[in-house]
């Protein structure tokens, strides 16, 4: 995510970070490069210009130029301005004081609107809220079936149109159902078009007037860059959007939409979709995204991810095993499964400070293949071998390799990784590492 601009910014700020003295000329030269980096990342030219002007006003002040660490001060200002550019403090969806909270999703066809409806429903269900989905997209033939399937997969009811041919009536029926049955949140999936047209906008405007939703969220494809920004601007003028959900951000190396959309439309990004699975939806925090862009990682999101996916009792048991030197290959396999549940090693490494500066972050597909091989090798071992890998001599290694469809070299590499991970996790668990308790519930791979 945003790989291109992260690398450009890191290269730029390396030049000034360690400088003991900065001049206005140095700052102007850096900001010219910053502006070029933003434009190449498909950021709206007015946004790029305004951003650089804002940074310059703060960066050429006496407090910065005469600071003992002027380069670091400039990076801090850029981080603050990026945060402000993307919306300041993150804002999720506030629930209405009188339930249900009605969330109306709008957007073009193909932006991932129906899938996003399922993701948002799952998000609230995980927060222990009662959610119902409403199928009000009567334009696309498969939309109703798709939403019904999504609802079943996350165990959320779906209000289907029976005899309604009017999407406004279908939405009203869904809200009535939500009120009657005491639901906390009603998520309405509406029709899209291949492009913005008058008929679509009229339909959505009528629906808005009739149902008075608490939230109107535009679902837009982040990978379309300025096209997404222009679409958001059009929808905002007609519907007064309360927020935006950007999908496919995991494949967005440039970041034009993420960086421009709030400045151009005034509508904040509320969520970002980070994958196809229904759990691949994150609340958007501008300060954390700014930190990622500047190569500082996103430790808060990493910790939250671990807390959501790591069982505390299991973490304590693992910590005790490490202290007693009882960590086994079964535990190693469990940690790999846990990492996959949290989104994979590549995603986690992107949140660790400094990792973005690596020449090449790991490819998730390659890591998935390696993890599959690792689990195949462990499954091919006997109970005793998994408990005491020290007994795995040459003949055993050949048998395990044949049984798992791998090579002896791959098995040797696995055992080496196991011992390294065991040593590192024991060190972190004992408090000698500087990362607190992270090692107790998540294995570095």
Quick summary:
The protein is an alpha/beta fold and 445 residues long. It is 56% helix and 9% strand.
> Any idea what the CATH superfamily of the largest domain is called?
P-loop containing nucleotide triphosphate hydrolases
Our Rg estimate from Cα atoms comes to 25 Å
Strand coverage percent = 5-15%
Count of individual domains: 3
Helix-strand string: HHHHHEHEHEHEHEHEHEEHHHHHHHHH
- Helix share of residues? 55-70%
Give a short account of the largest sheet: 8 strands, mixed
> Mean pLDDT across all residues, rounded?
81
Shape: flat
**What strand order characterises the main sheet?**
3-2-4-1-5-6-7-8
Euclidean distance between termini CA atoms:
20 Å
Helical stretch count?
20
CATH topology of the largest domain: Rossmann fold
Assigned CATH class of the largest domain: Alpha Beta
Structural class by sheet pairing and helices: alpha/beta
Poorly predicted tracts of residues: 432-445
Mind sketching the topology for me?
Blueprint: H1 3-17, H2 24-40, H3 45-59, H4 62-65, H5 70-85, E1 101-106, H6 113-126, E2 131-136, H7 143-153, E3 158-159, H8 167-180, E4 185-190, H9 198-211, E5 215-221, H10 226-239, E6 243-247, H11 256-265, E7 269-273, E8 281-283, H12 286-293, H13 299-309, H14 312-323, H15 329-341, H16 345-350, H17 364-379, H18 383-387, H19 394-404, H20 408-429
Parallel strand pairs: 1-4, 1-5, 2-3, 2-4, 5-6, 6-7
Antiparallel strand pairs: 7-8
């Amino acid at each position: 995510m945003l790989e291109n601009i992260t690398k450009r910014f890191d290269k730029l700020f390396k030049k000034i970070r360690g400088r003991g003295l900065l001049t206005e000329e140095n700052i102007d030269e850096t900001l010219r490069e910053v502006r070029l980096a933003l434009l190449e990342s498909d950021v709206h030219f007015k946004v790029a210009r305004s951003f650089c002007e804002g940074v310059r006003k703060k960066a050429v002040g006496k407090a910065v130029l005469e600071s003992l660490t002027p380069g670091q001060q400039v990076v801090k200002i850029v981080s603050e301005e990026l945060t402000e550019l993307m919306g300041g403090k993150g804002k999720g969806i506030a629930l209405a004081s009188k339930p249900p909270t009605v969330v109306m999703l709008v957007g073009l066809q193909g932006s991932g609107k129906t899938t996003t409806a399922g993701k948002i429903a799952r998000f609230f269900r995980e927060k222990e809220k009662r959610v119902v989905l409403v199928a009000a997209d009567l334009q696309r033939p498969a939309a109703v079936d798709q939403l019904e399937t999504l609802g079943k997969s996350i165990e959320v009811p779906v209000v289907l149109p029976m005899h309604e041919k009017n999407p406004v009536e279908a939405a009203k029926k869904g809200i009535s159902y939500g009120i009657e049955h005491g639901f906390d949140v009603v998520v309405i999936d509406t029709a899209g078009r291949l492009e913005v047209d008058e008929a679509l906008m009229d339909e959505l405007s009528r629906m808005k007037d009739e149902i008075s939703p608490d939230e109107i969220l535009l679902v837009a494809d982040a990978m379309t860059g300025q096209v997404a920004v222009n679409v958001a601007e059009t929808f905002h003028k007609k519907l007064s959007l309360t927020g935006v959900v950007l999908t496919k951000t995991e494949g967005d190396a440039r970041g034009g939409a993420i960086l421009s959309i709030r400045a151009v439309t005034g509508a904040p990004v509320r969520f970002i979709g980070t994958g196809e699975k229904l759990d691949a939806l994150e609340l958007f925090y501008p300060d954390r995204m700014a930190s990622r862009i500047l190569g500082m990682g996103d430790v808060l999101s990493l910790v939250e991810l671990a807390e959501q996916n790591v069982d505390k009792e299991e973490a304590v048991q693992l910590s005790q095993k490490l202290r007693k030197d009882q960590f086994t290959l079964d535990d190693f396999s469990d940690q790999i499964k846990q990492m996959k549940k949290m989104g994979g090693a590549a995603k986690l490494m992107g949140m660790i400070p400094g990792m973005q500066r690596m020449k090449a972050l790991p490819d998730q597909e390659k890591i998935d293949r390696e993890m599959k091989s690792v689990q195949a090798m462990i499954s091919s071992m006997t109970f005793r071998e998994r408990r005491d890998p020290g007994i795995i001599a040459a003949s055993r290694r050949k048998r395990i390799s044949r049984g798992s469809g791998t090579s002896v070299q791959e098995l040797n590499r696995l055992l080496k990784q196991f011992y390294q991970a065991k040593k590192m996790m024991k060190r972190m668990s004992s408090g000698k590492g500087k990362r607190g308790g992270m090692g107790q519930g998540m294995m570095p791979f």
